[in-house]
Amino acid sequence: MKKAFTLVELIFVIVIIGVLSAVAIPQFSKLTDNAKISSELSTASSVQAALEAVHGEWVISSCDFTWGNNRPFSELNTDGYPSSLGESSTKPLNYLLKNSETANWTNTGSTYYGPASSTAKGTSHCKNGKPCVGKSWEYNNNTGEFKLIEP
After folding, report:
1. What's the pLDDT tens digit per position in 121-137?
2. What are phi and psi for residue 67, nearest 5 degrees?
3. Among 3, 23, 111, 122, which residue's CB has the most CB atoms within a 10 Å radius?
4. Residue 18 — pLDDT band, cuts 50, 70, 90?
5. What are the structural domain ranges in the chain?
6. From the centroid of its chain, how far is CA 51?
């Protein structure tokens, strides 16, 4: 007697594979968005750490030091944080935010706002507390706070 799979068994296996692929394929499509979100959160964390490092050095050195790429302390404001973004000839915050000149940052007083995700390459799947197209980063040069704000 020859052993073989019956038609019912083959159909059952095909159905199981179909259900698994219907569940798995959408999860794989979210991997790119999750990677972009993680990348932007990591970058924001690095910027905040760099701001705190500059401020800490400013406090310890009593305003007599160089920071970044041999930037003079005079580019910092009276609170010890980079004071301008794309406005002056020195543009000190540009040394921390490499894309600030091309990313459409705006200024209102001591606060700067920039896009949380690229409209061309960013993620549009908005999650609460995660960066995406339509949300913004906020930098306050009085407090040195760099955070995500919801629209």
Report:
1. 777 677 777 787 778 88
2. -135, 165
3. 122
4. very high
5. 32-149
6. 15
Element housing 35 (H / E): helix 7-60
3-class SS of residue 115:
strand
The number of beta carbons lying within 10 Å of the beta carbon of residue 49 is 12
DSSP string, 43-71: HHHHHHHHHHHHHHHHHHTTT--EETTTE
Contact call for residues 116 and 148 (beta carbons, < 8 A): yes
pLDDT in tens, 55-75: 888 888 877 777 776 777 777
Checking if the pLDDT of 117 tops 90, the result is no
Q: Which of 40-44, 106-110, 127-131 has the highest mean pLDDT?
A: 40-44
Residue keyed to tokens 């999750």: 34
Q: What is the pTM of this model?
A: 0.68
Q: Which residues of 51-60 are buried (b: 16+ CB within 10 A; e: fewer)?
A: beebbebbee
What pairing do the DSSP bridges indicate for beta strands 71-72 and 66-67? Answer: antiparallel
CB 83 within 8 A of CB 91: no
Q: What span, in angstroms and rounded, lies between the C-alpha atoms of 126 and 136?
A: 12
